[in-house]
Every structure is written in C-alpha cells, then in structure tokens.
Amino acid sequence: MSGCPQCLPLLQRSAWKGGKGSLALLWLFLLLCLAPPSPCRAASPIRLTILEPRLEERENTLFFCASLSVEEENVLHDLLKDGAVLELTAAISLERHRSWWTNAEVAFHAYASSLRLDQLTRDFLLSPLAEGKGELTRDRNLTRLLYGSWRQMALPAGDMEAIRKEGPGRDYVVTVSFYLRHTEVPPWLEKSLVFWSSEVAPEKTITLNYHYE
Questions:
Q1: What are the extents of the domains in the chain?
Q2: Chain mean position to CA 133
Q3: DSSP letter string, 26-76
Q4: Which terminus of the chain is more exposed, N or C, with fewer CB under 10 A?
Q5: What does the pLDDT look like over 53-91, one tens digit per residue?
Q6: Element (H or E) spanning 11, and its range?
Q7: Phi, psi (degrees; rounded to nearest 5) at 111
Q8: 89 has which bridge partners?
Q9: Under DSSP, is residue 84 helix (H, G, I), strand (E, B) or coil?
Q10: Closest Cα partner for 45 from 78, 86, 68, 67?
Q11: What is the C-alpha separation between 105 and 103, in angstroms, rounded?
C-alpha cells in the first residue's frame, strides 16, 4: 500500500470518533492508497531556448526569424516514445508603440506545430508551424526533424502595408510567446487519479523592437 502507513491508525480513530463524515474520509484515503500506482513524472526539465531572434522585411511582410532549441531533447524523445502527443504554439503580436497610452495592436497571429511518434513505423511526425494544418514531415531522427523546422523558423508577424499606412518614424513592438504542451492525456496518466498539467516546458517569451523609417 502506498501513502503514509503511520497515518492510517490516526484516521481509523478519527473515523470511529467522528461518525459518518470521518468514515467517508477514511474510505477515500483507502481508495487513493489502493489505486494502481501511476508512473507520474517529476517536473519536466525540458526548456525552450530562442537563438538568434531578429525581424526581417521580406517583400510585403515583416517576419520573426529565430532558431528554437529544445534543451534536454533526450527527455522529449522519451516522452514521444511513451506515446505523448505534443504541440508547440507561437503567439505573435505586433503593436505600435504609444508613449502616453497602451500600445495599439496592429496584428496578431497564432501558429501551431504538432509532434508525435508513429507507433507503427516508429517515425517521428512533425507538422510545420502554421496557422492551419500543414503537411506532416517524418523522420526517425528527432534532432534532424526539429532542425528542419523549429530550428529554422520564419513566421509572419505583420503586413508591411499596415505599417506603411501609419507613416514613417513609428516604433513597433513584436512580442512572441512559445508554449509546448500535451494535446492529449499522456498514456501513463490515463488511469491516474493524480492531477496533471498539460505543460511540457515553461512558456518562453521574447520582445523585439522595430523602427519603421
């Protein structure tokens, strides 16, 4: 039996003295102790690191470009091997800076990329960061798969036409937040009574300034 054995005699005495209410607590305690142990995992050591962040003007679009690295990739590898289905989300806001008021939103985009393991072929499957569903890329090498997508990202942050309409000499702020989460209950927690968090890695946010001449 898991739990705290020393607490059981105390609970039994409390249940005897406290009547039905305490007896119900005793039964709840026994239920939790007798439940199948869950392979519940400790707080994930996975961290997201943003490398070489920059803003680039390409034709009529302002792009956020960066390389997103996953620290402790071996832990991510094991999660996927165990059946986890993950999603990386990038939320990008473009705001015009205002000195005496809150910034004015010019554009907002949310991009998502799914990542999982094909249990039949043992290939890792990755969809590109996009606002809709993109074509899946597969590879048995997780590092190589991530390098071709998350490590070389160029995400539209806003339309240059909207910036031009505001006129030259304006300052803008681009804020990008990354989230890595479970999209499904992990297989090792499906029968668990323990509360779980969908977060795989802590949120990572970066802010860049842009001046339109």
A1: 1-35, 47-212
A2: 17
A3: HHHHHHHHHSPPP-PPPSP--EEEEEEEEEEEETTEEEEEEEEEEESHHHH
A4: C
A5: 999 999 899 999 999 999 989 999 999 998 999 999 999
A6: helix 7-18
A7: -115, 145
A8: 112, 179
A9: coil
A10: 78
A11: 6
